[in-house]
Amino acid sequence: MDNGILAQFIQQIINGVSLGSIYALIALGYTMVYGIMRLINFAHGDIYMLGAYVGFFVTTQLKLGFFPALILAMIAIAAIGVVVEKLAYKPLRHSSKISILITAIGVSLFIEYTTMYFLSPQPRTFPPVLPNQVFHLGSVMISFQQIVILASTVVLMLMLWYIVQYTKMGKAMRAVSYDTDAALLMGINVDHVISFTFAVGSGLAGAAGVLVGIYYNTIDPLMGIMPGLKAFIAAVLGGIGIIPGAMMGGIILGVVEALVSGFLSSTFRDAAAFGILIIILLIKPTGLLGKNETEKV
Amino acid sequence: MNVMKTMRRYDLALLALSVVTYLIFSFLIDERVISSFWRLQIVLMCINVILAASLNLINGITGQFSLGHAGFMAVGAYVSAVMTMWYDLPFGLALLIGGLAAAFIGIIIGIPTLRLDGDYLAIATLGMGEIIRITILNIPAVGGASGLTGIPRLTDFTWVFWAMIITLFFIKNMVNSTFGRSCISVRENAIAATAMGINTTYAKVLAFAVGALFAGVAGGLFSHYFSIAHPSSFTFLNSFNYLTMVVLGGLGSMSGAIVGATLLTFITAALADYPEIRMIIYALCLILLMIFRPQGVFGNQEFSLLLQRLMKRRKGGKGNGQAS
Q1: Residue B213 falls inside a structural domain
Q2: At what angle do helices A190-216 and A44-60 cross, to 10 degrees?
Q3: ipTM of predicted assembly, 2 dp
Q4: Closest in A112, A116, A282 to B112, CB measured
Q5: CA atoms within 13 A on the CB side of B114
Q6: Full domain range(s) for residue B136
Q7: How many domains does the structure of chain B reveal?
Q8: Does residue B288 belong to any structural domain of this protein?
Q9: For B226-256, what is each residue's pLDDT tens digit?
């Protein structure tokens, strides 16, 4: 491997890690909701899109900077996530999987097209809230935005880790995820835990939306579909329901995508993601960090 | 024996009914009583019924949660288009080859993925469907991202209607056969089915292949009606749409698949004048339906059975009015 290819390789790894950390943030919401409710929340990608729009309006209308935008978007989107859960998913708590899945698809379409109706389907340009500075390390480039994305993701993940591992609510979340009925018998308010999970997951997706707005400079009402699916793949890759798995899956997926689009062709980028999905499902359907469980009769 | 006879009589009655329906509709279309917009909707309705019925065989009868139906449709659409455009094959043969190609892909996809179940199978089939689409997108010979254009417009009402009737009869008879019973047992409990000596993998893969075959035929009809096959017509959102039809009518019910497909096509068409709010209303209907009637219009009942039960109840009501 000569020097040029090596530099390009490292460059793609850096791009992949920054993209992958955004996938990881979205994947966390998927994986937490799945862990607790066994629900593939297809509307999660659209929740992330709403995050990007909140970030957009906070920075353009209120003229606030990056950090207020990030925090306001997280709070607003967490609230929206709870409302969605209460209105659409709560009445279906005991329904069959397929009807909850179809509801999730309905919610996804509803969010997409309502946004389109009120905010026009035209893509909008995200304002440059961060200095457009690029650092050169030899022949490898890393932008200030990438550093901010990575740092924000790491901080958010550490906060999530703290919540899940060391708070009472986190303990309740783990209990509900392990056995909902037993948790209920132990006096845990499962409805509260589910709402809290939706709030946290949606908040992370909202943050991811703002970060993507900064990274790609453009947002539109259908931007959530593909990253939503990719994040879902990331969650499955790491082992759905497992929080560190989602982080790992996101990063791996981002790096693979960056390498495929850097060295092969960007049209195969999406196929690579789905290919990873199929391979992992066939070899180890419980994901990289998942434990194998045998079905009991 | 008696049951067989009533079944056959019932089949003949249905056939007669479909001939009458066909004659009425083709008369109305020929006389241009039905506007071109609704003519298009009727053709779409028939294609959607084929898709919903075939998906119902996989999802409803065999209980395998598939989200990749649009992918099979894409295979059929492109293969049959290539057959008529490049090899000048007759349309019927091209449709059949398209369907068989889709069934072949279905078997290749089915054998590894059908080992999974539940959500994992749903995701895997979704991924497979998208991989099919992205692969087509990257084949320049069939137009790549701009789609395959210039397909002869061979589909008309006669073709879609009879293709639909053949599909429905085939799937209905399949469901009522030994094979159909083994599919239902796989849905109800795969482990118990295995214990009863049913080859569950065989049942699953065959159901998957037959479902894919008819989806391929539907795809062929689709591309030969619009004279274009475009990768964007076969995304996973389209697969969701067909799944919605099946669930709307009632998962596991053939009558439900027909009603669901007709109803959904009709709703979409009726809302065509309001393009901005069309999808919002559609999504709201979907959510409300799932909250208030998650089992769909028919549940897993069949129209014929409901009718029989209704008639029996009426007879019984006359006989012993006191008891009821």
Answers
A1: yes
A2: 60
A3: 0.79
A4: A282
A5: 25
A6: 41-233
A7: 1
A8: no
A9: 988 888 889 888 888 898 888 888 888 888 8
